[in-house]
Amino acid sequence: MSTGSEEKLGTLKISDDVIAICAMNATLKTKGVARLSSVFYDNISKNIFGKEPLYKGIKVNQNDEGISIDIYVIVEYSVKIPEVAWDIQVNVKKEVENMTEAAVRAVNIHVQGVHFTDEED
């Protein structure tokens, strides 16, 4: 039951890793995405900390203006790349905002390559 007044009990900080995992799940569910692409800073993390990041190909930046996410993907051959990119943006924004209740101000898609599938008849 709400009394009409809210008392601040503390703060909530959601880790970049948590946001990246939400973004990864939404991206990989998007039709036309083959996989995420490893990028330079993934290799730095492995070399400096000696471990693979929980997610590859996703960079999260949080500030007072909201969350921005850069996603590096490999798409399936024969898809319309702008449509796949748009779908990723919509899916990621929706999933991250639903899970975190934080504003997503940008979802930037970087198409790093195309995946060709071998069709066996």
List the helices and strands and how they pair.
Elements lengths: L15 H13 L4 E4 L3 H10 L8 E6 L2 E11 L4 H20 L3 E12 L6
Question: What is the compact description of this entry?
Answer:
With 121 residues, the chain is α+β, with helices and mostly antiparallel strands. The chain has three helices and four strands.
Q: Can you put this structure into words, describing what you see?
A:
This protein has 121 residues and is α+β, with helices and mostly antiparallel strands. It has one domain (19-115): Cation efflux protein, cytoplasmic domain (Alpha-Beta Plaits, 2-Layer Sandwich), CATH 3.30.70. 36% of the residues lie in helices and 27% in strands. The chain is built from 3 helices and 4 strands. It has helices at residues 16-28, 40-49, 81-100; strands spanning 33-36, 58-63, 66-76, 104-115. Strands 1, 2, 3 and 4 form a 4-stranded mixed β-sheet that branches. Helix 1 packs across helix 3. The model has no long low-confidence stretch (mean pLDDT 86).
